[in-house]
Amino acid sequence: CMSRQLDRLEAAGQVIFVHGADYGRHDPTTCSYGRPASQIQNVQCSSPTHKVAQSCDGKSSCAVKASNSVFGDPCVGTYKYLEVAYSCRCM
């Protein structure tokens, strides 16, 4: 969820390979608790990002903060979250 540190990605004895990451909003339920409807209704908000791959690829662990200061603001007024698709590979 926005302004929270991404749970640390860890790959014990392996390395992280990021397939893709997206910062924005695709549905009205993810990270919606306590948010006004006006902040979660825009589900066409998306900003694919390579910053997660730049920070995490080839490492055994990493952390990235889901925030506008890191990824920019693809949709002003919408509460956003970071989705990351990744796998672990043997070194």
UniProtKB/TrEMBL annotation:
Residues 1-89 form the SUEL-type lectin domain. Pfam families: SUEL_Lectin (PF02140). Keywords: Lectin, Repeat. It comes from Lates calcarifer (Barramundi). GO terms for molecular function: carbohydrate binding. It comes from the Eukaryota. This is SUEL-type lectin domain-containing protein.
